[in-house]
Amino acid sequence: MRFTKKTLNIVIAIIIVLAAWQSVIWLTDIEEALLPDPLMVGEAMISLFADGTLFAHLKVSLMRFFSGYLSAAVAAILLGLLLGRVQRLWDIADPIVQVLRPIAPVAWTPFIVLWFGIGSAPAIVIIFIAAFFPILLSTITGVKKVDTNYLKLAQNMEIKQPHLMTKIIFPAAYPSIASGLHIGIGTAWIFLVSGEMVGAQSGLGYLIIDARNLLRLDLVLAGIILIGICGLLLDKGIRLLERLIEKRWGMTVSE
């Protein structure tokens, strides 16, 4: 029943969006070249599937995404666990992090292109930067909020590193880390497209730029919609992974 209701809500939402989209075209009498109708965009999406273009670009984008995101997650979690435990280090690192964090990753593009060249590397570096800071700060927050009773119990039981970190601190900080992973996956996916618009010759971002240069706005909108769908699926995937870990550790699984 729950699945059916959820599916029905999705269908209703899609119908509302399509109706509003088509209504704008009818009411404003805007040219198809400026705003393609849903049918044209649907045909463009089918063509991308049929000729294999979508899968070729999607494969490259996912490779770049996971290379940047997973490396950022590992680096941010490890560094966050350290900075969260050693207050002196965090006092020194905090001003640096707070200055670098608000800078949009694409602002570093001129240096990234000079240092790493063109192709996949700049996109991977931009994704790394986009995902790193949300995960880092969430990890540090989670470590600092670990119940002191857990630490006292570990001390009484003479639990030392690395078991203290892996058995006590990391599981206790996991909810905050998971929150950072959610935020990081969203920002990383957004900046993947930005990264592929600079110097790349493949990927979903390049697909949109190439379609724009050809004045194929139906393909541009098709690419935008597909990027949104892929981002949604990635978020659902990490939520599923989170629930599996929660079950493994006996945590309460949030709905």
Q: What would your notes on this structure say?
A:
There is one protein chain. The protein is mainly α and 255 residues long. The protein folds into 2 domains: 1-30; 39-248, MetI-like (MetI-like fold, Orthogonal Bundle). It contains 10 helices and no strands. It has helices at 2-28, 38-50, 53-85, 87-100, 109-116, 120-144, 148-156, 163-196, 204-213, 217-248. Helix 3 runs antiparallel to helix 4 and helix 9 (204-213) runs antiparallel to helix 10. It is elongated and about 75 Å long.
CATH topology of the largest domain: MetI-like fold
Helix content: over 70%
**Low-pLDDT residue intervals, each spanning 5 or more residues:** none
CATH architecture field of the largest domain? Orthogonal Bundle
Element order: H for helix, E for strand:
HHHHHHHHHH
Average pLDDT over all residues? 83
Q: Beta-strand percentage? A: under 5%
Number of helices: 10
Largest β sheet strand count, sense and barrel closure = none
Query: Helix/strand-derived class?
Result: mainly alpha
Terminal CA distance: 16 Å
Shape: elongated
Name the CATH class of the largest domain.
Answer: Mainly Alpha
